[in-house]
Specification:
binds 6-O-phosphono-alpha-D-glucopyranose; Glutamine--fructose-6-phosphate aminotransferase [isomerizing]; glutamine amidotransferase
């Protein structure tokens, strides 16, 4: 327990370690002067021939992959994200130049290793994106990219999600360059925002809104999370975190899918958290209206509180950053929300019932 320092839980310590973890993740990898990403693991042109990326991952790492899929698409790289536990069943065909990327904090998750081995067995090229040097995934994959977040003890992954997304964001840039893509029109602004992300997260950590909101909606029947694009990836992660450590029902929906079924669940007892990622926010405002008119409290996570006041009951305001990174800041707020909600309920936050940090059986 000495390792917890001044915090009551490893989870809170690790949430607060994110600025430092990200500084390590980014260290020496973003070259602002030449407006490019430099990953020392890979020689120039290493990804030249890659024409498609398949992510395989579980749990929080899967959500990092869903987030990253959009960043790869933005750079013209076809990408798909698979639950590693479904990979054998879905059995996606591998093109000659498909790169299978296992995203795994521990590098030991059995389902993920199994998917990785399956892809390798078909002759596919593999890459592990992991926190643990010397892990099975790092050893078995053709290549490894280390996220350098430092050890994570809390069962619920927090800082490693942020470091995974940022590592994958940098990988997307490197791959785009190797594939001969045009540099991003906003390269300078984007790379600056990546470098400044640790400071932006520090600002988020200084805000107490999540704790207030956790207690305001503590008696709810269920917590719902909605978003579009990267906001949907973070909604999924927000709901997973909430379930894992509060033992309460929580669920995420793609904002536009609400009307195709989930809306039937919405009442005054189901607060809806909207992650406004900048991806078609206007449409999400419409979805927020849909739930608000059914009596559900709506809580927006946004950097533009004035534009949402009409459709919200509560706002968690974030500092401004590049559009592609906004949802990462919202994710930190949702980590804090889950933490405080679990703390109010007296849960075993670092070791939630029935869960393990690394699941080594399929
Ligand atoms: C377990 C943990 C999750 C984690 C998942 C994947 O289920 O409880 O927090 O996201 O495994 O772990 P990995 O080490 O592969 O990222």
């Amino acid at each position: 327990d000495a390792g917890k320092g001044r915090y009551n839980h490893y989870m809170l310590k690790e949430i607060n370690e994110q600025p430092e973890a990200l500084r390590q993740t980014l260290n020496g990898r973003v070259d602002l002067e030449n407006e490019r990403v430099e990953l020392e693991e890979f020689p120039e042109g290493a990804f030249e021939g890659v024409d498609e990326v398949h992510f395989v991952a579980c749990g929080t790492s899967y959500h990092a992959a869903v987030y990253a899929r959009q960043l790869f698409h933005d750079r013209g790289i076809p990408a798909q994200a698979f639950f590693a536990s479904e990979y054998a069943t879905i059995n996606p065909p591998l093109g000659e130049n498909t790169l299978t990327v296992a995203v795994t904090q521990s590098g030991e998750t059995a389902d993920t290793l199994s998917a990785l081995r399956r892809a390798a067995g078909k002759g596919g090229r593999t890459l592990a994106v992991t926190n643990v040097v010397g892990s099975t995934a790092a050893r078995e994959a053709d290549d490894a990219l280390f996220i350098r977040a430092g050890p994570e003890i809390g069962v619920a992954a927090t800082k490693t999600f942020s470091s995974q997304v940022v590592s994958l964001a940098m990988l997307a840039e490197r791959m785009a360059e190797d594939r001969g893509a045009e540099p991003r029109a906003d390269a300078a602004r984007y790379l600056q925002a990546l470098s400044d992300l640790p400071d932006a997260i520090e600002q988020v950590l200084g805000d107490t809104s999540a704790e207030r909101v956790a207690s305001a909606y503590a008696d709810s029947l269920s917590h719902f999370f909605i978003g579009r694009g990267t906001g949907h990836a973070v909604a999924l992660e927000g709901a997973l975190k909430f379930k894992e450590i509060t033992y309460e029902h929580a669920e995420a929906f793609a904002a536009g899918e609400l009307k195709h079924g989930p809306l039937a669940l919405v009442t005054s007892e189901t607060p809806v958290f909207a992650v406004l990622s900048g991806d078609y926010d206007e449409k999400t405002y419409g979805n927020m209206e849909e739930v608000k008119s059914r009596g559900a409290p709506v809580i927006a996570l946004t950097d533009a509180p004035e534009s949402v006041s009409r459709v919200t009951d509560d706002v968690i305001t974030m500092p401004e950053t590049h559009e592609d990174l906004k949802s990462l800041l919202a994710n930190v707020q949702l980590q804090l929300l889950s933490y405080h909600a679990a703390s109010l309920r007296g849960r075993a936050i670092d070791k939630p019932r029935n869960l393990a940090k690394s699941v080594t059986v399929e």
